[in-house]
Amino acid sequence: MKFLMSEGFYEFVRGPMVWLAFLVFISGSTYRIYKIISGLKKEAVVLPYMSFKYGLRSIAHWATPFGTVNWRRHPVMTTVTFLFHFCLIITPVFLLAHNILLFQSWHIRLWTLPEGLADLMTLIVMLSCVFFLLRRFVAREVRFVTYPSDFFILAIVFLPFFTGFLAYHQLFLPYKALIVLHILCGELMLIAIPFTRLAHMLFSVFTRAYTGSEFGMVRHARDW
Amino acid sequence: MAVAAEKKEVKKIIDLGLEEGAKKLTPEKIEITINNALAAMGGARLDAYVSTCIHCGLCSEACHFYLSHDGDPHFSPVGKVKQTMWEILKNKGRVSPDSVKKIAEIAYTECNLCRRCSMYCPFGIDIAYIISSVRRICHLLGVTPQYLQDTAHSHAATMNQMWLKQDEWIDTLFWQEDDYRREIKNLTIPLDKEGADIMYSVIGPEPKFLAMLIGNAAKIMNVAGIDWTFPSFDGWDNSDMAMFSGDQEIMGRVKRAHFEAAMRLKVKRIVMGECGHAFRSVYDVGNRWFGWKMPPVPVIHAIQFYYELIKEGRIKIVKKFKEPVTLHDPCNVMRGRGLGDMARYVVNAICEDFRDMSPNKEHNYCCAAGGGVINCGPPWKLKRMEGNRVKAEQMKATGARVVITPCHNCHSGIEDIIGYYKLGMHTKFISDILVDAIEVPESMKAKK
Amino acid sequence: MEATQKSEEKVQPISKQGIPSPLHTATPLDRGKDAESRMDWDTKEKMIANTDEWKSRYAEVRPFNVSEDGEKIGAVVQNDDETFTVCINGNPWEETYEKIWSFKFTNEGKAACLVLKDNAWTVALDGIPWNEKFDYAWNLQIAPNGRSIGINIKKDDQYGVCLGDKPWVQGFADVRNLFISSDGTKAAASVAVKRLAEADIFNFQKGVWTVAVNGVPWDKNFVNVWGLAFSPDGRHVAAETRINLYDYAVVVDGNMWPQTYKCVCEPCFTAKNNVIAPVKIAKGWTLALDGKPIWGPFIQVWPPKFSSDGQKIAAVVASEFGRWTIAVDGSAWKQTFSDTVLDPVFSPDGKRVAAIAKESKDPMNMGSSLHSIEGNDRWTIVVDGIPWNQDFDMIWDPVFSPDGSTVAAKAEINGKYCVAVNGKAGKKMFDALWSPVFSPRGDKILVRCIGGGKYYRYVVPLDEI
User: Fold this and answer.
1) pLDDT, tens digit, 9 for 90 and up, residues A160-174
2) Which of B52, B292, B361 to probe the A interface (max A CBs under 10 A)?
3) How far does CA A223 lie from the centroid of its chain?
4) How many Cβ pairs closer than 8 A exist between chain B and C?
5) CATH number for the domain running over A2-218
6) pTM, to two decimals
7) CB neighbours (10 Å) of residue C186?
8) Out of A44, A45, A217, closest to residue C364 by CB
9) pLDDT tens, B27-53?
10) Are B221 and B267 in contact (CB under 8 A)?
11) What is the complex's ipTM, to 2 decimals?
12) Could you say which of 2.60.40, 1.10.1060, 1.10.10, 1.20.140 is the CATH number of the domain covering B16-144?
């Protein structure tokens, strides 16, 4: 605990470690996308069928809440999924505390979420994670395809928000320790994205666009 | 850690193709073959799909097998991927001969490659592609269902699906021409007519069992005044079960014969009969194997052809079909070509009482016969029936007496379902109804 | 020398007669020396037959065919009593039949077809039926030199081949891929030596197919046997085979190349009796000469063609996925085409290459069975990598003038036909037309056409086309 709260460690996790995390995240993501695209060039039958128009059309439908048949079939799941992903991305980007750090370091000013709202959004992310967790136990079709890695990636997503929430409300542990844990978890998540199935953040745009292109451009059919 | 749900016990099905094939395998051979196969596939697409799948299970309700088995997760699309491709990847190809048999059974008899699930996966993961890749591996391992393999052999040896000899094909055309000449004066089924506008192509079962469909087509062509032809030589069959057995080399070869027949006859288009998988094979799968981005000669499905003939007044509808009908949307021309509206236009034009199914068009449930499943033959029929209760319920709800199925696999598969679930309906092709609905001008009628 | 100069132009005589020739026949057709020089190049216009009058005379007139010299036009016609006969230049054969099909002219201008009488099929040549009769006959092929006719036959539930009224002695369970040697004295085919029970996948995989040459099968069986080829001297046969479900091989006279491949296409012989075939290797497709890759690799390579001196090789290739062109001696033309490119044709001197190409602006749009899509499915001729400026609704094989300077082809525009020369559509449009033939000096073109219900044979100076 002492180590966790030491100034040196704090400086490390909020300094070099952040750089490292981003470096791994960006280079790892770039590498994986590069690998897939160069691999697809060899497979020949994918890239020639990619269409910007139909790819985007498909993405637009699926990025719209209740914009597809399957989204409408699962109102709860759909609501949770969209809220979760929205809050997951927006909260950290526009959080006051993050923006202060950003300003301190680089004098960049971003729009900032009201603190109460940010708190609510964090709660939404955490509750969504609980929902996804429960779903893995309750829904038969999900339980059947659940692996330890599924819990692992859920935890990776849950933890930065959880620790951030605790830190903001100064619960359970000393603030300093929570902040360090929070930063570490955030960094872990960044690092994990390219190397776990969190990579769906990187690939889903392409998989969706490809299916949208095949359905739309080649087969003249809808895919939503 | 993955939780296994209970699977309903079913009587063990013996398929000689799977049994004998698995007997010849050794763990080493399996590992080498699988890893070579995965390397040859390139792997990038598979990698993207496997890395993207978040195991959410949202694809489950897309699948008629899953719905018909009361939500048994073994039958969900992702559940089937888990039991097959994940199993292979997780073990890096080190799977036992028994596992290969099990994997083959799932890939060949529990998935119709109907692509409905890629419309339900939020990421658009092409699960049919993954299962096709599994089938490719099974083909390379020599573990394929006997009857499907036999059909692939037929394609390889005769370029048609039914072991039809060349004289049998030609004779069927002569025979149909003679038959229909009693109705239409000088009706011709032109053979090898170079420079015709259209080459009409069919699937092997038409000359083998359903020759009147060729006669139907001839009547429609003659009445509509279409300049058309059939090749007398190999390449007339547009179907392709090698595509489904995983024998891509034969698939490509069969497609080449088909397209070259059209190019040799100098036709402008290929119009094909009412078949779905054949359309898929010529339109966006088989053609790609030999490097054709799109078919080198445009291919038009019968639905689209009838639609144009009626819409442009090339044929006139004078006697509509009276019984209540419904329409089954074949996956390969709905998700495969978006012909839902055209099919409805045609059915409404020729039938008085059309009752649509729900869900329909791109979202329609598969017939459970396509994707080579019905071609796995008698051993698997019961499984296929049990796997599509949801289709039976869907059809029953329409209250129709006739199910129009513009696809051969659907036609046979749905007739089976009707029998098994005692629905008291019958299947018909569009052309069955169309030939009786169109006006034959007096000048064309044969003297009695 | 003159004969060899002309031999390349002789690649398509069969299709000139309006009968489809296989796209990938490897052996150039030698239809006899100086065929063109024997033709009448002086009469400017000859009305050979009033074809409209035939239509009033007969209950039915089936598609017309013309002889290569243009002097004859013929068709299968139906009499009022529902029997069929063949009408040549307005004169019907005396004999009538229950059915007639596969009517074509031989290179020497004889009319050949398959006829049915009293439940027996045979060949009728200029109205005279062969002595041999069969339960079924099909695939009428004329030997490359035009001197003999071969057919696939079925008799007493056995399949075989009949070459020039002489059927093979041995029958088989199935016979396909008939190939006749260039001198017309030999025939080869892939044959099934055993009848299999339904769904007997195991024996099939042991191999029941082989090659029979003049009815005598090789002693080795294969899983599949497809395209065959005779060597120019007729002494060797090469075959495209699958030796198990996964390995493909080229087999020459029963001996396999040492390598197997992931796939092969039909082989052909070079002038020096070497065998060449497109083969699939790990990196793509290439041409292999006696088992050694000589080209590529490309995404795809189709079976090649040779210049008349045998020195140059050209083949259709896909240089990238979905883009087609011609490669000459391994180097692909820069210009590629979206839909397809058909077999290359060498000029008689072997210096130039022409091929049919098809391009679509929007290949994904296959919107109509009855109408053309604007900008799609446009056919043209490409000469030495440069496409003609004009494109057409359909185009037939390019024909080089004897000196190679001019390329002509039958072309279709709005349902009418014209002779297109060096990229320009001819002035005159016809209701029916057969491929142009150059005069020996290359200054005139023989135009065989139907216009106004009559069949004409015109000899047109090149500059008046």
Assistant:
1) 999 999 998 888 888
2) B52
3) 24
4) 142
5) 1.20.950
6) 0.94
7) 19
8) A217
9) 999 999 999 999 988 889 999 999 999
10) no
11) 0.94
12) 1.10.1060
